[in-house]
Design goal:
This protein is an alpha+beta fold and 152 residues long. Helices cover 51% and strands 12% of the residues. It is built from five helices and four strands.
Length: 152
């Protein structure tokens, strides 16, 4: 009986651990653009907005390589609000973020204004991590400046 109890406890623990590790092995994509922007404002984080298509060769490459990289996943889940809009699912995309080509990766402020020109095409994990670092640095700099101005 005691042996069955221990086995049950181990199974529950293993299941919980597996569920927990799965959640950190993928990017936490927002449900849609509007909800993502609300969360960005609430959490005061920059936004990664990906304009994509399921049938696009380079979109698939981006999803299967860069967006599966553990360091990319960690950085995005920690420091960004991530939103993806699929053209072939008719997801909402603001007109100024639409493009004839995919994938397009935009970095936005929580007020929906653009931080930089977009990244076009599939980018490897190392270069994408460099871009994330630059975006985070710029966002923190602007946030600090706004805080200073608000105190004056």
């Amino acid at each position: 009986m005691f042996k069955n109890f221990i086995i049950s406890i181990l199974l529950v623990f293993t299941t919980l651990s597996a569920n927990d590790s799965n959640s950190t092995n993928e990017i936490h994509w927002e449900e849609n653009f509007h909800k993502g922007m609300v969360h960005a404002q609430e959490q005061n984080k920059p936004v990664l907005f990906v304009y994509s298509r399921h049938t696009c060769k380079y979109c698939v490459i981006l999803e299967k390589t860069t967006f599966k990289d553990k360091k990319v996943i960690e950085a995005l889940n920690r420091d960004f609000i991530s939103i993806v809009s699929y053209t072939d699912e008719n997801d909402y995309t603001p007109g100024e973020l639409r493009s004839p080509g995919t994938p397009i990766l935009w970095f936005l402020y929580p007020d929906t204004s653009m931080m930089f020109q977009p990244i076009q095409g599939a980018v490897d994990a190392e270069n994408f991590l460099n871009a994330l670092s630059l975006v985070k640095e710029e966002f923190d700099k602007v946030k600090k400046e706004k805080t200073k101005k608000a105190k004056k």
